[in-house]
Amino acid sequence: MNIKQIHASEAIHIIPLFDQYRVFYKQPSDIALAQQFIESRLNHNESVIFGAFVESDGAQNAIGFTQLYPKYSSMRATKNWILNDLFVDPAYRKKGTGAALIAQAMDFARGNGATFVQLETATDNFAAQRLYEKIGFEKQLPDEAFLVYRIQLI
Predict the structure, then answer these.
(1) Which pLDDT value is given to residue 125?
(2) Which residues contact 131 (CB under 8 A, 6 or more apart)?
(3) Interior/surface letters 114-153, b for 16+ CB within 10 angstroms, e for the rest
(4) Residue-by-residue pLDDT tens, the chain, 154 positions
(5) I want to staple 114 with a disulfide (CB 3.0 to 4.6 A). Which of 14, 50, 109, 145 is the partner?
(6) pLDDT at position 147, please?
(7) What letter does residue 10 receive in the DSSP assignment?
(8) Quick check: 64 and 50 in contact, CB under 8 A?
(9) Res 138: pLDDT
(10) H or E segment at 110?
(11) Which is nearest to 41 in space by CA: 85, 80, 106?
C-alpha cells in the first residue's frame, strides 16, 4: 500500500471513493457533485487529501482517502486540522488502511506546526470509534469556555 497526497490533477482517483463516503452517510450517489466538490477543494487549496493506493494489474488503484480542513484560532494564533473525511473501500477494511491514512494525516499536521487534529464521527459508527480510540484520539467534552451555536441557512 502506498499513501500519497492528492493534488488537483489526481482528483479523479478519489472521486468514486468520495461518492461512496457520501452514500455511507445516507446521501444520494452523485458522481458529478463529488467531482465538483473535490476538485473545488483542491483547486482552491481549501483541503488536503491523502489517498491510499494498491497496485493491481500494473495500475495504482485508490482504496481509501482522508480529507483534512484547516482550523484556525485567532485567539491562540494557530492552525490545526480537522480530519473531516475518512473512507476505506469495504474490501480493504480491517487491514490497516484507515490507521495508515490517519497516521499520514497526523504526520502532515505535525509537520505543519499543528498542535492537534480533531475529528467527528457518527454516534453509531462504532468501528470508526474503536479505530480512533485505538490510535489515541480522546472523546472531548464540550468546551467549558465557549458554547457552539449553529443556524441552518437552507
Answers:
(1) 87
(2) 98, 99, 102
(3) beebbbeeeeeeeeeeebbeeeebeeeeeeeeeeeeeeee
(4) 999 999 999 999 999 999 999 999 999 999 999 999 999 999 999 999 999 999 988 889 999 999 999 999 888 888 999 999 999 999 999 999 999 999 999 999 999 999 899 998 888 888 998 999 999 998 876 666 666 666 666 7
(5) 109
(6) 66
(7) G
(8) no
(9) 87
(10) helix 97-111
(11) 85
Q: How far apart are CA 122 and CA 112, in angstroms?
A: 28
| 60, 12 Cβ separation under 8 angstroms | no
Q: Of 50, 55, 69, which Cα lies nearest the Cα of 3?
A: 50
User: Which grid coordinates are listed for 132?
Assistant: 480512533
Q: Can you tell me the distance from the alpha carbon of 36 to that of 56, in angstroms, rounded to the nearest whole number?
A: 27
Beta strands in 7-91 (DSSP E): 48-56, 59-73, 78-88
Go through the domains of the chain in sequence order and give each one's CATH number.
2-135 (3.40.630.30)
pTM for the structure as a whole: 0.90
- How are strands ordered across the β-sheet holding 59-73? 2-6, 48-56, 59-73, 78-88, 117-119
The amino acid that residue 79 corresponds to is K
- Using the structure block, give the residue that is written with the C-alpha cell 468501528: 127
**Closest by CA position to 96, among listed 71, 64, 124, 125:** 64
Beta bridge partners of 65: 51, 87
